[in-house]
Amino acid sequence: MKIVLFDSKDDHADLLPLSFTRPICDFRVGITTIREKWCAFLPEDEIHALPVDFLRPRFGQPDDASEEMLFISGTVVPDRDVAARILSLRKGQAIVCDDRTLAFRGGLGDLESKNFTDVFVEDLRHLRHVYDVFLMNPSLLVEDYARLTTGRKSLLVPDSNKVLGNPVDENGNPMIFIEEGAEVEGAVLNVKEGPIYIGKDAAVMEGCCVRGPIALCDHAKARMGAKLYGGSTFGPYVKVGGEVDNSVIFGFSNKAHDGYLGNAVVGEWCNIGAGVNCSNLKNDYSKIRLWNYRLRSFARTDLQFCGPIIGDHTKLGINVMLNTATVIGVGVNIYGSGFPRAFVPSFLEGSPNSGFADVPMKRFLTIAERVMARRNVEISDLDRVIFDRIFEYASHLKK
Known about the structure:
20% of the residues lie in helices and 28% in strands. It is globular. The mean pLDDT is 96.
């Protein structure tokens, strides 16, 4: 069976700015991405992504709109029960929640026209809002840890580290798993509230304090003296320092220096400079409102804690400060003193005191190419088309 992880226009809009540059199934929640979870639960099936129109040339689309396929919303986060429930669908049957299609077996044309023979109203576990990434991350991290490590052998934890809590769970499985090539020296590793996963060729440097559940993915580095709290995931090649709590950094981004980041989601190819501090709690302890791209307004969240949501290729200069729940688009460069507004559209640069101006696309691409080349990654022509579309969308928002 061909499995297609699709994005509806509403889901895409609700999960901006993170969905500007990737299908929703490529969001990292837990240790792995949503797509990687589906591949683990359905290893025999052919799995594809179907994002919104302007991302399809880059990430693919079905060849035949009439072919019978199993369509699953990219927002759905699988476990064995969810996978089994969706696999049980027959042709023409769909699962719907809050008027959003979560799964359907049939052709693409029938999906787009909602030509369903049977509709089951069920609330499968799925992302509704960008902040669901950090809300769901602690539990999904524990699930991924069990799936990725059960029956496998970890590297030994070097004696230079101090382990707090029982190093094995009630079934005798290790609470700290270190993949091949990783280095962990001189750190305090606390597993009283959850496991610690250290990916291939990752590094936890001396003086780090790490509390589970937490994950440093392949090639990630926790720099000296970092204070890393539970519920956090640092994707491939991330460099992290300072104090971080219940946050997800998708990959290839740096928050390498002192400063605070909490209850946050950061995309790829970002740089958070030294001394950057981000509020995640309002001084009056009131509930938080967060910018929603689909509504084009600040929307109620019922959250008391929420830090920044930061799109790809954004840079925060030394000592930048962010208000609670600041949403920042793609390709933004903020520097200087003062607090920017709680919503900063894509492709702007400047400071709260001196104002912001558009980032010319040519200069953005030059910087992005320079940054990505350090990881031997090139910007393709299809990537350039995507950035042009995001620039057009941002220009419309600024009017």
